[in-house]
Design brief:
Shape: elongated
Oligomer: single chain
CATH class of the largest domain: Alpha Beta
CATH superfamily of the largest domain: HAD superfamily/HAD-like
Radius of gyration: 30 Å
Structural class: alpha/beta
Number of strands: 13
Length: 375
């Protein structure tokens, strides 16, 4: 006010009005208001074209800060297409008998391993009987009442908890697990009858994705319900050093919280119903688009193509977006710091002030559009 009054006394009212208009035009925070949303809009649009869907701009900003990426195994690091590759019977039982018992017990289960066992039985021409009773123990196995007796099918730990002596199978179970196969033990009326080896190969590009994440300075962790020996063998093939195994479905959330306390912000990548709590609890939940709807709903980011390279691209792009935001904010503040004093002193005509304001906004938008060439 005092500056305007002084100008009115010294240079006339027109000079004072011109200076006032210039100040108002220059002080308009257009560039500042465009700095963040333009970068996020351009960046998320680019991500969408690459099959990466961010639920919100906040997810973009949180993703740049993650320090650890935790992966579920089945269907995330692996193809999610488990197949029976070997059946090991305990004499006098045959391989077909072991598979028939397991398939009958698993007929009522929707678990991927159960479907693999039932499918393998049908491929061998076996017709699994319908169980008279069925009970699934989440994350462990199933118990079914069959015509020939009570069958237990699941992890070795599950059968041991039910009092089954697995000593006739111990060596074979260890061998299968050491070969990165999931070993499913089968018992009938409290006695072991055999084991079924199931293989689910890693996804193409999984090893490269793990390597790229490490190159970004991130710690990579695998969280799985598989036994420690199988999990360690699979992780070693992928180049993952830290493995959390024997995790029940409800405990993945706790493991995510533990990683956050030990390392820092966590991104969790998963695809199944059991992964939903961990996806929601993570700083950023990344859902595989080929997985379940519940997992997708719980995630902050969805990888439409299910390609793990998308995890790397999402993190790299979030960092690139943040760099552009910082550049835009710097330019917006620099513009005000330089131009406002000039306008206050009456050294800038309103038309020039308007041109400068437009140039500032266009500079911010143009800088954001550079993201379209991101690789």
């Amino acid at each position: 006010t005092e500056t305007v009054a002084a100008m009115a006394r010294l240079g006339g009212l027109s000079l004072a009005i011109a200076a006032t208009v210039s100040v108002l035009v220059i002080a308009c925070p257009c560039a500042l208001g465009l700095a963040t949303p333009t970068a996020i809009t351009v960046g998320t649009g680019l991500a969408a074209r690459r099959g990466i869907l961010f639920r919100s701009g906040e997810a973009v900003q949180r993703l740049k800060d993650v320090r650890v990426v935790a992966f579920d195994k089945t269907g995330t690091l692996t193809r999610g297409q488990p197949r029976v590759v070997e059946v090991v019977p305990v004499p006098p039982h045959s391989a077909d008998e072991v598979l028939a018992i397991a398939a009958a017990a698993e007929r009522g289960s929707e678990h991927p391993l159960a479907r693999a066992i039932v499918e393998a039985a049908r491929e061998r021409g076996l017709d699994p009987e319908a169980p008279r009773g069925f009970r699934a123990v989440r994350g462990k196995g199933v118990e079914a009442e069959l015509a020939r007796g009570v069958a237990l099918v699941g992890s070795g730990r599950f059968l041991a908890e039910r009092g089954v002596d697995l000593s006739p199978l111990r060596r074979e179970l260890e061998r299968l697990e050491g070969e990165a196969k999931t070993a499913v033990a089968v018992a009938l009326d409290g006695r072991p009858v055999g084991a079924i080896a199931i293989s689910d190969p890693p996804k193409d590009g999984a090893t490269a994705a793990v390597r790229a994440l490490k190159a970004l300075g991130l710690e990579v962790v695998m969280i799985t319900g598989d036994n420690r020996r199988t999990a360690a063998a699979i992780a070693a093939g992928l180049g993952i050093e830290r493995v959390v195994a024997d995790v029940l479905p409800g405990d993945k959330l706790r493991e995510v919280e533990r990683l956050r306390e030990e390392v820092g912000p966590v991104a969790f990548v998963g695809d199944g119903i059991n992964d939903a709590p961990a996806l929601a609890a993570a700083d950023v939940g990344i859902a595989i688009g080929t997985g379940t709807n519940i997992a997708i709903e719980a995630g902050d980011v969805t990888l439409v193509r299910g390609d793990l390279a998308g995890v790397v691209d999402a993190i790299r792009l979030s960092r690139a977006i943040f760099r552009v935001i910082v550049q835009n904010l710097f330019w917006a503040f620099f513009y005000n710091v330089v131009m406002v004093p000039l306008a206050v002193m009456g050294w800038m005509h309103p038309l020039l002030a308007e041109a400068a304001m437009a140039t500032s906004s266009l500079t911010v938008v143009g800088n954001a559009l550079r993201l379209r060439g991101w690789r």
